[in-house]
Amino acid sequence: MVAHRGPGAGRMIYLDYQATTPVAPEVAAAMQPWIADKFANPHSPSTWGREAAAAIEVARDQVERAIGLEGGSVAFTGSATEALNWALKGTLERADKRRNRIITVATEHAAVLDTCEWLAGQGIDLTVLPVGPDGLLDLADLERELDERVAVVAVMLVNNEIGVIQPIGEIAALAHSCGALMLCDAVQGLGRVDIPVGPDLVAVSAHKIHGPKGIGALWIRGGAEPAPFIHGGGQERGLRSGTLSPALCVGFGAAAKLVSERRAIDHEHVERLWITAGSSLMTDWVINGSTTQRYHGNLNIYWPGVDAARLIADLRDIAFSLGSACASGSGRPSHVLRALGLSDRDARSCIRLGFGRYTTEAEIIDAVNRIDSAARQQRDIAA
Ligand code: PLP
Questions:
Q1: What is the distance in angstroms between the CA of the first residue and the CA of the last residue of the chain?
Q2: What confidence score (pLDDT) does residue 381 get?
């Protein structure tokens, strides 16, 4: 694997796997002919067009296999953000008019929360459930809220900021008990944890599994098709118009095939890195979110009193992120950390280390030791 280089930088230790993942060499190789030579429109009936369409169908099958659910199929989208917007807006549009309610959770990605807020502005009744200090939804809270007015329950599988895993199977069963659909944002879970049986709609994204940016997908259970969100040429069974990019689809397919094939190897590797990172950290760091129900490639931690933004500025050759990153750059702590009950002060001490397939043990030891001593220095100066 080539070294990951930052813009104009020397060798960088990349620990921001939740933001995006390095493109796998196998993915780049699979995409290459579709970028360089094979330019046909996959929706045209020429021999070349049919070849491109066939490659897209192979990719669709690879993504569906990685998702691993029966009774549905995938429609490609431009991103998971688009898939989530489509799932929510299109489901509400299709739903019986008496079902005008959405239930979601305070720690969802902005692609869900902001879309729900937008729908609330259009008159949809929105309920945002809290989580416990461990970041997990209390199923009794959901059960209490459910009624026959709920059209969709939207909950993510693996949280992008803190890595906790919600009980999606149980949530889907509860949603179905009142006739609602269940939408699962599985962007951070795909290829890493099993997607439980139950959801009717599942959003995924290629660039979180070592695929290209600019392509996502919505897995749709047969019969749960949302109303189209993008209108035009009728591609994707009339559900999502727009000429598909064979290169992006093939790249997504190759990435999905790899996560399926490498599932056990990638899992073991991440477990080793998790143990290594944990044992290199001094005891002063606190883990955010459940320590049992979580994906181990996400280490979101804080040391009270440490200025996380300064840590990042001091360690420019290590790419990691503020646990308190917020989309708007307003400097306010993240909605996820607030939902856990962290004070703004503690939230400003949070960092997120994300690692995976191409992270080496040497990198994690080096990065964690340097982050730890930079934090210690800050504390010593403050004392
Ligand atoms: N949902 C989660 C949990 C994410 O982590 C992300 C990406 O940050 C998204 C949705 C949006 O994915 P995309 O970048 O494909 O729009």
A1: 43
A2: 81
Mean pLDDT of 61-85: 98
DSSP string, 236-269: TTTTS-S---HHHHHHHHHHHHHHHHTHHHHHHH
Q: Which residues pair with 204 in a beta bridge?
A: 217
d(CA 79, ligand 1 centre) in Å: 8
Sequential DSSP letters for 188-234: TTTTTS---S--SEEEEEGGGTT--SS-EEEEEETT-PPPPSS-SS-
Distance CA 17, CA 137 (A): 24
Residue with tokens 């192979």: 58
Q: Report how far ligand 1's centroid is from the alpha carbon of 45 (Å).
A: 34
Q: Which residue has the tokens 């416990």?
A: 132
* Atom 6 (ligand 1) nearest CA: 187
Question: Ligand 1: which atom is nearest the Cα of residue 205?
Answer: 15
Active site residue 350: no
pLDDT band at 327 (very low <50, low <70, confident <90, very high): very low
| Cβ-based neighbours of 35, under 8 Å, separated by 6 or more | 247
Chain-centre distance for alpha carbon 121: 25
d(CA 326, CA 339): 14
Residue 118 and residue 104 in contact, taking contact as beta carbons nearer than 8 Å = no
Q: Hey, which bits of the chain come out as E strands?
A: 13-14, 72-77, 101-105, 125-129, 150-156, 181-185, 201-205, 216-221, 286-287, 298-302, 318-319, 321-322, 350-354
With residue 292 as reference, give the H or E element that holds it: none
pLDDT of residue 75: 98
Q: Is 174 helix (H, G, I), strand (E, B) or coil?
A: helix
At 286, is the secondary structure helix, strand, or coil?
A: strand
Beta strands 125-129 and 101-105, pairing class: parallel
Rounded Cα gap, residues 31 and 251, in angstroms: 5
Q: What is the mean pLDDT of residues 263-267?
A: 98
